[in-house]
Amino acid sequence: MRFLMIDIHSHILPGVDDGSCDLENSISMAKQAVVQGIHSVIATPHHENGKFTNEIEFVELRVKLFREELEKRNIPLCVLAGQEVRVYRGLIEDIEAKKTSTLNGSRYMLLELPSDRISIGTHELLHELSLMNIVPIIAHPERNREIAENPLKLLELIQLGALSQITAHSLIGSFGKSIQTFSLDLCKNHLSHFISSDAHNTTNRAFALAGAYDILQEKLGIDLVNTFQNNANSIIHDLEIERYQPVWGKPKWFQFWKSNK
Ligand SMILES: [Fe+2]
């Protein structure tokens, strides 16, 4: 275990969404996170994704209760409050009404697109968020069909001020070779800025952060690992993220993949 890691995207809270189903499962997840070398986790229940609504005040209350349980059981994991916010009509109004918020009260909001497209109005939304000094982090762009078909769409969002987060399971290959290769290319080309677990349970969607960082180090080097880990640290302390010029030069494998679709 080389790192003390921070995870900015997880569904560890018991019984609030499609993540952990109950307290004992959440405790098992917490223990698994500690074994991996994770010291802080932001709990990001789904919010307004069409199935689940978890307003920030409710999330904060559930985080407080869960922290008390962890303390009782001497599990050294710091859990912080956030939301995985789906792009939805009324998002700006809900931020003003303090129903929808950022990661640990920072300037950074975890923003989820539909899986098949970039919603109409996303560019305008990014502009409105920037006027509120909120920086969106696009969750798992590597699993969005429109972005996979044309990564320049993600480049546009990054150029409009967004950041993006790759899911650990994509990097370790759980979603297949093409998503793994695509994820590595997004990381390499500064189109992604974080890796996080998006953990839902202790089995097929577990905390796979250590393995993902191992792959990142093996394929792209320790400097990028350090950059990503510093970025995660900047989220929980609300610090500026260092940005590098994003590029997309269509690697050879991508042209081959496109021509064989
Ligand atoms: Fe998630």
Query: What is the level 1 CATH name?
Result: Alpha Beta
| Major sheet characteristics | 6 strands, parallel
Superfamily (CATH H level) name? Metal-dependent hydrolases
Q: Strands across the major sheet, in which order?
A: 3-5-6-7-8-9
- SSE succession: EHEEHEEHEHEHHEHHEHHH
Instruction: Give the end-to-end Cα distance, rounded to a whole number of Å.
Output: 40 Å
Helix content: 40-55%
Low-confidence runs (pLDDT<50, min 5 residues)?
Answer: none
Written account of the structure:
- The protein has 261 residues and is an alpha/beta fold.
- It has a single domain, classed as Metal-dependent hydrolases (TIM Barrel), CATH 3.20.20.140.
- Helix content is 43%, strand content 15%.
- It has eleven helices and nine strands.
- The chain has helices at residues 23-36, 56-72, 91-96, 122-131, 145-149, 152-159, 168-172, 177-188, 209-220, 222-236, 252-259, and strands spanning 5-10, 38-43, 46-47, 78-81, 84-86, 108-112, 135-139, 163-167, 194-196.
- Strand 6 (108-112), helix 4 and strand 7 form a beta-alpha-beta unit.
- Helix 9 crosses helix 10 (222-236).
- The model has no long low-confidence stretch (mean pLDDT 94).
- Residues 9, 11, 84, 198 line the site of fe (ii) ion.
Compact overview of the structure:
The chain has 261 residues and is of the alpha/beta class. The protein is built from 11 helices and 9 strands. The termini are far apart.
